[in-house]
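so the lab meeting is tmrw and i was supposed to have these ready like two days ago... anyway. pasting both below. for each one the top line is the aa sequence and the line under it is the structure tokens. i havent really looked at them closely yet so no promises
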Amino acid sequence: MSWKDYQKSLGREPQSQKWWRIPFVVGLGVLGVFYWFNPMQIPHVSSAPGSFVYQHQGVPTEVITAGVNQVKILKNGVDLTYDLSISVDLQKFIDHKLHKYQLDWAGVAVMEPDTGRVLALSSYSAKDPSQNLLSLQATFPAASIFKVVTAGALLEETTKSSSSVFKYAGDMRKIRKKYLHSNYQGTSMSLSKAFAKSANGIFGVIGSKYLNQHVLENYAQRFGFNEKIPFDLPVEISKVSIEKMQQASDVDTAKLAAGFGNVTLSPLHGAMIAASAVTDGMMMRPVLVDRVRSDEGVIFQAHPEVWKNPFSKKIAKDMRVMMQNTVTSGTARRVFSRSRNHPVLKNLEIGGKTGSLYGKNPRGRNEWFVSYAVDANSGKKLAVGVVIVNEKYWKIKPAQLTQWIYQEYFKQNAEGNVLASMENNGSKHGS
């Protein structure tokens, strides 16, 4: 039985009923008091049958700020234990970094690409401390992260490859109509290099000359835009809003393809997009609830489930290489330039995509880094989606924060493997 089916089996309260507010407020108060004294656990939360928060979302959103991996709830007269996918140590590590640098706004999502298990959901705002769901918020302009969609559409819909060369005569940072279909002597660049360098002009040519708004919108939907992400907590919908086909100009299409369109994205969705490059083009359904237990035993167990297939296995290999180039020779190269000498990072294959654009909600410059990492020794994978917004001054970039996350996670993983190996050897000698 799927989690969705399990939720339905609990019954549903008519939306017109308002009496749920009393147990809801009381429940939040109990959670807050308990977390103040013991941040590692959440106690029994007594909710009336059909309680709104637990009925529709399964777990309270407070688990994000509490950073716990287990919550106990009394629902419909039954004590239930929800085992969550959250890595308490990793969540604490990320939360500490966000608080240390006092970022204006920041949202971070970390997940396992193969399983969809969400290991961390961190949010912080020095401007508005009440903002604790930024990791699930989709008001941030997607910027050049949309180039992943454009590149995927080009490779799937045309005979072009990652080595195909394109030319643009204008300033590569800007989109100008006269350069989209011109014969001017311009700068030539392969798709792979243009992706790594986030060359807006090249992607503008790709969008206006080889694709169109209909194709881009279709591929955006294949990546999960304009659709609710099936998750155990509410996630804002990442949206692509485009002009009607009759009104769209070449410049409109070019800007959309390059990442200047009216497109928004959440950090969780960003992590899912990056993860698809290392799962043969499959986008797994994100999971927060691993299992639900009662005194009678396990009544729900999550299993990996494919949500979308944005591109084929062959295209996924090309995307993986292009994302690696972003790290080794593209817009994220400076942050990762010393990785080859780092005891943890040197064993990782890291790929990603940067993006930046001014936004209005929250107001400021949005900086993105969505990425993946694969450990060459263990084969373990991780995907991260980070957005940081600052009005004036920058303290850290998303790529730098991501590098620290990889260091911490794979260091913990390596240490865990060593301990497990020692325990196994000890048990063998003991027997």
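ok protien two:
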Amino acid sequence: MRIGSIQISSSPVLALAPMAGYTDAAFRTLIAARGADLVFTELSSAAALSRAAGGQPSSPRATDAIIQVGTGGITGIQIFGNNAIEVASAVGRLRSLVESGKCAARLIDLNFGCPAPKLTRNGAGSALLADEKKVGAIVQAAVKAAGQIPVSAKIRLGYKAKNNIEIAKALESAGISAITVHGRTAMQKFSGKSDWKSIGEVVEAVDVPVFGNGDVNSPADVGRIMDVSGCAGVMAGRAVLANPMFFLQAREHLRTGSFTPTSWEDKLKFMHEYLSLQARFGLPFHVAKELAMQLAGGFRGSAKMRAELMMAKSGEELTAVMEKREEGSRAP
């Protein structure tokens, strides 16, 4: 698959979705080592990023932490905004960081898919899907500002009603290099079932690579969404939080029709590795606790373990709680 100037040899190309509060540099590093080709940062505000452009005051420390890049895989920085000038300024700042060697990201992703009210009430995220011309203008400005850095976009099927084909064509006309489609409208949020056939409508409508997203809950779903939609790549998010072996299992399932279950030892090793990277990337302890809570689910006694994890005040206490689980037991 080619995304602008980026050539990816894997087939299919597997991507880790951007998830606020989870896809920090440490998490992305470890998931890239476990089979993800593309890893995306938490979404960042174009307004915050643009404040550092043109010699203006630097962006908030939180934004600088979000855009730091781990190792392995291809990192895309996802941004949101509802103003073409502001988005272009933010992209220009990212481009300068990349070209100066201060940031190792290789892709910029525009968020037109998030249904969270904190974005949509300000006319950003999935609210923009109601205005195809504005989406096109934002993308055109971002692509121009990005120079040689490819720009991708994440969308839904529409805001209130489907206009997935029209939006996809507007994106392609404006110079987008790849599109990820979540198979629900914004108003559906995460209710109902992801419409993989409508993702296929986008695949047929454009020539750029399309990633399928939504209800990819099992490693076996990677092959299923590809069969239904014809997408060239697959993006998964929430399922990976509970199962760090997800992408390796998806590749195994595509090869053999089955996959090796995730063991508790796999999860415990992941947590140890995450904690070792946490200090390196300067991440606060509470993010490790949130991750541990995601890993500790879906088995008998998980509620008790989560209650104990909530009381932990250090990485050592987190792992001590997790290590009490019987060795060799299987995690779903």
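from a quick look at the 2nd one: The first strand starts at residue 2 and ends at 3. DSSP finds 15 helices and eleven strands in the chain. will dig more after coffe
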